[in-house]
UniProtKB/TrEMBL annotation:
SUPFAM superfamilies in UniProt: C-terminal domain of transcriptional repressors
Molecular function per GO: transition metal ion binding
Annotated protein name in UniProt: Ferrous iron transport protein A
Keyword Iron found: yes
UniProt entry tagged with the keyword Hydrolase: no
Source organism of this protein record: Mucilaginibacter mallensis
Pfam families assigned: FeoA
Coiled coil spans: none
UniProt KW keywords: Iron
Residue intervals of the Ferrous iron transporter FeoA-like domain: 1-70
Domain of life, per lineage: Bacteria
SMART domains to which the protein is assigned, alphabetical: FeoA
Length: 71
């Protein structure tokens, strides 16, 4: 399952990334393998997505969220 498939309130654990360039950026922001992610909000048109990870809120584009594979 990918992060972009979760609904508001759902959680997942980061397993891996599908985009090497994007993975570096995401890991610098706290999205590390093994971290729990919770979807806090989704914009009315579906983009961006607000998630909670490593104790803070982060907004991601749908294409960025698609690169995060969850357990």
């Amino acid at each position: 399952m990918r992060l972009s498939q979760l609904e508001v309130g759902e959680k997942g654990i980061v397993k891996e990334f599908t985009d090497l360039e994007m993975s570096v950026k995401l890991m610098e922001m706290g999205c590390l393998p093994g971290e729990e992610i919770k979807v806090e909000r989704i914009a009315p048109l579906g983009d961006p997505i607000a998630i909670k990870v490593s104790g803070y809120q982060l907004s991601l584009r749908k294409r960025e969220a698609y690169t995060i594979v969850l357990q």
